[in-house]
Amino acid sequence: MAQYRASESKREQFRRYLEKSGVLDTLTSVLVALFEEPEKPNNALDFIKLHLGAAGPEPADTEALRTELADLQQKCSELMEENKELRSRLMQYEPSPDGEAAE
User: Fold this and answer.
1) Cβ(55)–Cβ(49) under 8 Å?
2) Domain boundaries, the chain
3) Which residues does UniProt call coiled coil (predicted)?
4) Disulfide engineering: 55 pairs with which of 5, 30, 49, 64, CB 3.0-4.6 Å?
5) Residue 12 DSSP code
6) 73 vs 65: CA distance, rounded Å
7) Given CA atoms 33, 36, 41, 43 in this order, what sign does their dihedral have?
8) Which residues of 63-96 are buried (b: 16+ CB within 10 A; e: fewer)?
9) How much is the average pLDDT of 74-103?
10) Residue 52, pLDDT score
11) What pLDDT was estimated at residue 97?
12) Using CA atoms, how far apart are residues 30 and 37, in angstroms rounded to an integer?
């Protein structure tokens, strides 16, 4: 019987923790939104994830972003190399600190 009370006490503590941190209110509002949805979604779990903000970008979006990232990193590398080359060429025409052109 004492084990049953300890278990109830832990459950009650956990319930208060969830209530205090706002989890119960958030879950309730998401479930109410699902209940009030005129056309129920095929996947209720996806609906809940979406409304909780847990659903990340779609896989197609992720792949497109990765491709764009790779392209931009390559472009950045090319521009850095071009910048380095142009600085080197510019240094040929920059006057040296004593006022003469570098040769």
Assistant:
1) yes
2) 1-56, 57-93
3) 62-89
4) 49
5) H
6) 12
7) positive
8) eeeeeeeeeeeeeeeeeeeeeeeeeeeeeeeeee
9) 83
10) 86
11) 64
12) 11
pLDDT tens-place string over residues 22-81: 999 999 999 999 999 999 999 999 898 888 876 566 677 888 889 999 999 999 999 999
The secondary structure element, H or E, covering residue 64 is helix 59-93
- Give the 3-state secondary structure of residue 101: strand
Q: Give dist(CA 72, CA 70) in Å, integer.
A: 5
Q: What is the pLDDT of residue 2?
A: 58
Please report where in the chains the tokens 């003469």 appear, as a residue: 100
If DSSP codes are grouped into helix, strand and coil, which group holds residue 10? helix
pLDDT exceeds cutoff 80 at 7: no
Residue bearing tokens 């005129």? 38
